[in-house]
Amino acid sequence: MDDRIVANERRGASGLDEGMRLSLAQEAEARAAFYRMLSSLYFKELDQEGIDRLAEADLTGTGIDDELMQQGYADLAASLRHRDGGTRQELAADFAGAILAAGSYEERRATPYESVFMSETGLLMQEARDDVYRRFCEARVAVDEGLRTPEDHLSFEFEFMAAQADRLAQALRSGRAEDAAEALRMQRSFHLDHLLNWIDAFCDCLDACARTRFYRGVSKLTRGFVRLDEGLMREASEVLC
What phi, psi does 124 have (nearest 5°)? Predict the structure, then answer.
Protein backbone atom coordinates (compact mmCIF):
# COMPACT_ATOMS: atom_id res chain seq x y z
CA MET A 1 0.00 0.00 0.00
CA ASP A 2 2.72 2.49 0.97
CA ASP A 3 4.77 1.64 -2.14
CA ARG A 4 1.79 2.30 -4.37
CA ILE A 5 1.13 5.68 -2.74
CA VAL A 6 4.75 6.74 -3.19
CA ALA A 7 4.76 5.60 -6.81
CA ASN A 8 1.58 7.52 -7.59
CA GLU A 9 2.94 10.64 -5.91
CA ARG A 10 6.13 10.56 -7.90
CA ARG A 11 4.35 9.88 -11.14
CA GLY A 12 1.89 12.73 -10.62
CA ALA A 13 4.54 15.28 -9.64
CA SER A 14 7.05 14.34 -12.32
CA GLY A 15 4.35 14.47 -14.98
CA LEU A 16 3.96 18.26 -14.77
CA ASP A 17 4.74 20.11 -17.95
CA GLU A 18 6.81 23.28 -17.84
CA GLY A 19 3.81 25.55 -18.23
CA MET A 20 2.04 24.04 -15.24
CA ARG A 21 5.18 24.16 -13.10
CA LEU A 22 5.71 27.84 -13.88
CA SER A 23 2.05 28.64 -13.24
CA LEU A 24 2.16 26.95 -9.84
CA ALA A 25 5.47 28.67 -9.05
CA GLN A 26 4.02 32.09 -9.87
CA GLU A 27 0.97 31.39 -7.72
CA ALA A 28 3.23 30.34 -4.82
CA GLU A 29 5.28 33.54 -5.20
CA ALA A 30 2.10 35.64 -5.17
CA ARG A 31 0.93 33.84 -2.04
CA ALA A 32 4.31 34.46 -0.39
CA ALA A 33 4.14 38.17 -1.21
CA PHE A 34 0.64 38.50 0.24
CA TYR A 35 1.56 36.66 3.42
CA ARG A 36 4.54 39.00 3.86
CA MET A 37 2.33 42.03 3.36
CA LEU A 38 -0.02 40.80 6.07
CA SER A 39 2.92 39.94 8.30
CA SER A 40 4.25 43.48 8.07
CA LEU A 41 0.86 44.96 8.98
CA TYR A 42 0.73 42.99 12.24
CA PHE A 43 4.40 43.30 13.21
CA LYS A 44 4.44 47.03 13.86
CA GLU A 45 2.52 50.19 13.15
CA LEU A 46 2.84 51.78 9.73
CA ASP A 47 5.30 54.61 9.28
CA GLN A 48 4.72 57.36 6.73
CA GLU A 49 6.70 55.53 4.06
CA GLY A 50 4.59 52.43 4.53
CA ILE A 51 1.38 54.44 4.34
CA ASP A 52 2.48 56.16 1.14
CA ARG A 53 3.54 52.87 -0.40
CA LEU A 54 0.18 51.29 0.35
CA ALA A 55 -1.72 54.33 -0.90
CA GLU A 56 0.10 54.13 -4.21
CA ALA A 57 -0.47 50.38 -4.59
CA ASP A 58 -3.35 48.76 -6.45
CA LEU A 59 -6.04 48.45 -3.80
CA THR A 60 -8.89 47.63 -6.17
CA GLY A 61 -8.80 43.90 -5.49
CA THR A 62 -8.73 43.26 -9.23
CA GLY A 63 -8.48 39.57 -9.99
CA ILE A 64 -9.47 38.53 -6.45
CA ASP A 65 -12.53 36.29 -6.53
CA ASP A 66 -13.35 36.74 -2.87
CA GLU A 67 -15.99 39.18 -1.70
CA LEU A 68 -14.57 39.65 1.79
CA MET A 69 -11.11 40.47 0.45
CA GLN A 70 -12.63 42.92 -2.03
CA GLN A 71 -14.36 44.64 0.88
CA GLY A 72 -11.05 44.75 2.71
CA TYR A 73 -9.31 46.36 -0.24
CA ALA A 74 -12.12 48.91 -0.47
CA ASP A 75 -11.70 49.77 3.22
CA LEU A 76 -7.94 50.28 2.84
CA ALA A 77 -8.37 52.39 -0.29
CA ALA A 78 -11.02 54.58 1.33
CA SER A 79 -8.89 55.04 4.44
CA LEU A 80 -5.84 56.15 2.48
CA ARG A 81 -7.47 58.02 -0.38
CA HIS A 82 -7.51 61.32 1.50
CA ARG A 83 -4.60 60.76 3.85
CA ASP A 84 -3.18 63.81 5.57
CA GLY A 85 -0.69 64.66 8.27
CA GLY A 86 -2.81 63.00 10.93
CA THR A 87 -3.28 59.64 9.22
CA ARG A 88 -0.09 58.11 10.57
CA GLN A 89 -0.91 59.12 14.14
CA GLU A 90 -4.48 57.85 13.81
CA LEU A 91 -3.37 54.46 12.51
CA ALA A 92 -0.58 54.21 15.09
CA ALA A 93 -3.06 54.89 17.89
CA ASP A 94 -5.43 52.24 16.56
CA PHE A 95 -2.60 49.71 16.22
CA ALA A 96 -1.52 50.43 19.79
CA GLY A 97 -4.99 50.13 21.22
CA ALA A 98 -6.40 47.25 19.20
CA ILE A 99 -3.34 45.07 18.60
CA LEU A 100 -0.81 46.03 21.28
CA ALA A 101 -3.61 46.42 23.86
CA ALA A 102 -2.08 49.65 25.12
CA GLY A 103 -4.12 51.18 27.90
CA SER A 104 -6.45 48.20 28.11
CA TYR A 105 -6.72 46.32 31.39
CA GLU A 106 -10.12 44.64 31.25
CA GLU A 107 -11.48 44.69 27.71
CA ARG A 108 -10.11 42.03 25.39
CA ARG A 109 -7.97 43.25 22.52
CA ALA A 110 -6.73 41.57 19.33
CA THR A 111 -3.31 40.66 20.69
CA PRO A 112 -1.95 38.60 17.78
CA TYR A 113 -0.76 35.51 19.60
CA GLU A 114 -2.26 32.10 18.94
CA SER A 115 -1.83 31.06 22.58
CA VAL A 116 -4.04 33.92 23.73
CA PHE A 117 -6.91 32.72 21.57
CA MET A 118 -6.38 28.96 21.85
CA SER A 119 -5.62 28.44 25.54
CA GLU A 120 -8.25 28.29 28.26
CA THR A 121 -6.35 30.84 30.31
CA GLY A 122 -5.80 33.29 27.45
CA LEU A 123 -2.12 33.61 28.32
CA LEU A 124 1.07 33.77 26.27
CA MET A 125 3.59 30.95 25.90
CA GLN A 126 1.10 28.07 25.99
CA GLU A 127 0.88 24.84 23.96
CA ALA A 128 0.29 26.65 20.66
CA ARG A 129 3.59 28.47 20.97
CA ASP A 130 5.43 25.27 21.83
CA ASP A 131 4.14 23.49 18.74
CA VAL A 132 4.90 26.47 16.49
CA TYR A 133 8.43 26.53 17.89
CA ARG A 134 8.80 22.80 17.20
CA ARG A 135 7.65 23.21 13.61
CA PHE A 136 9.97 26.13 13.05
CA CYS A 137 12.85 23.99 14.30
CA GLU A 138 11.85 21.14 11.99
CA ALA A 139 11.87 23.57 9.07
CA ARG A 140 15.20 25.02 10.24
CA VAL A 141 13.90 28.54 10.72
CA ALA A 142 13.97 30.66 13.85
CA VAL A 143 12.68 33.96 15.17
CA ASP A 144 15.36 36.52 15.96
CA GLU A 145 15.95 36.14 19.71
CA GLY A 146 16.56 39.87 19.95
CA LEU A 147 12.88 40.50 19.27
CA ARG A 148 11.89 38.74 22.51
CA THR A 149 8.54 37.83 20.97
CA PRO A 150 6.89 34.38 21.16
CA GLU A 151 6.90 32.35 17.96
CA ASP A 152 3.11 32.14 17.76
CA HIS A 153 2.80 35.85 16.93
CA LEU A 154 0.60 36.14 13.85
CA SER A 155 3.26 38.00 11.88
CA PHE A 156 5.72 35.12 12.40
CA GLU A 157 3.13 32.53 11.41
CA PHE A 158 2.45 34.47 8.22
CA GLU A 159 6.17 34.83 7.56
CA PHE A 160 6.58 31.07 7.96
CA MET A 161 3.86 30.47 5.37
CA ALA A 162 5.61 32.93 3.06
CA ALA A 163 8.96 31.18 3.47
CA GLN A 164 7.45 27.80 2.67
CA ALA A 165 5.63 29.24 -0.35
CA ASP A 166 8.98 30.58 -1.58
CA ARG A 167 10.50 27.15 -1.02
CA LEU A 168 7.67 25.62 -3.05
CA ALA A 169 8.20 28.10 -5.90
CA GLN A 170 11.95 27.51 -5.99
CA ALA A 171 11.48 23.74 -6.09
CA LEU A 172 8.97 24.02 -8.91
CA ARG A 173 11.17 26.31 -10.97
CA SER A 174 14.12 23.95 -10.62
CA GLY A 175 12.05 20.84 -11.34
CA ARG A 176 12.47 19.28 -7.87
CA ALA A 177 9.03 17.68 -7.66
CA GLU A 178 9.50 15.84 -4.36
CA ASP A 179 10.79 18.98 -2.61
CA ALA A 180 7.84 20.94 -3.98
CA ALA A 181 5.37 18.37 -2.69
CA GLU A 182 7.01 18.34 0.74
CA ALA A 183 6.98 22.15 0.97
CA LEU A 184 3.29 22.16 0.11
CA ARG A 185 2.49 19.47 2.66
CA MET A 186 4.27 21.48 5.35
CA GLN A 187 2.30 24.58 4.45
CA ARG A 188 -1.05 22.82 4.47
CA SER A 189 -0.35 21.19 7.83
CA PHE A 190 0.75 24.45 9.45
CA HIS A 191 -2.15 26.35 7.89
CA LEU A 192 -4.65 23.85 9.29
CA ASP A 193 -3.15 23.57 12.76
CA HIS A 194 -1.95 27.13 13.32
CA LEU A 195 -4.01 29.55 11.22
CA LEU A 196 -7.46 28.17 10.44
CA ASN A 197 -7.90 27.20 14.09
CA TRP A 198 -7.87 30.76 15.45
CA ILE A 199 -8.02 33.30 12.64
CA ASP A 200 -11.81 33.77 12.84
CA ALA A 201 -11.73 34.41 16.59
CA PHE A 202 -8.84 36.83 16.17
CA CYS A 203 -10.52 38.73 13.33
CA ASP A 204 -13.82 38.88 15.24
CA CYS A 205 -11.90 40.52 18.08
CA LEU A 206 -10.09 42.95 15.77
CA ASP A 207 -13.39 43.88 14.10
CA ALA A 208 -14.83 44.69 17.50
CA CYS A 209 -11.99 46.79 18.88
CA ALA A 210 -10.47 48.50 15.82
CA ARG A 211 -11.49 52.14 15.57
CA THR A 212 -10.35 52.83 12.02
CA ARG A 213 -11.76 51.54 8.77
CA PHE A 214 -8.18 50.71 7.80
CA TYR A 215 -7.65 48.01 10.43
CA ARG A 216 -11.16 46.64 9.96
CA GLY A 217 -10.15 46.31 6.32
CA VAL A 218 -6.93 44.55 7.33
CA SER A 219 -9.08 42.12 9.32
CA LYS A 220 -11.21 41.37 6.25
CA LEU A 221 -8.14 40.81 4.08
CA THR A 222 -6.67 38.53 6.73
CA ARG A 223 -9.75 36.40 7.22
CA GLY A 224 -10.52 36.27 3.52
CA PHE A 225 -7.01 35.30 2.44
CA VAL A 226 -6.46 32.64 5.10
CA ARG A 227 -9.71 31.00 4.02
CA LEU A 228 -8.93 31.44 0.33
CA ASP A 229 -5.47 29.93 0.69
CA GLU A 230 -6.96 26.68 1.93
CA GLY A 231 -8.51 26.21 -1.49
CA LEU A 232 -5.43 27.37 -3.37
CA MET A 233 -3.23 24.86 -1.59
CA ARG A 234 -5.77 22.09 -2.00
CA GLU A 235 -5.85 22.65 -5.75
CA ALA A 236 -2.05 22.70 -5.93
CA SER A 237 -1.93 19.53 -3.87
CA GLU A 238 -4.20 17.75 -6.33
CA VAL A 239 -1.58 18.40 -8.99
CA LEU A 240 1.61 17.88 -6.97
CA CYS A 241 0.70 15.25 -4.44
Answer: -75, 165
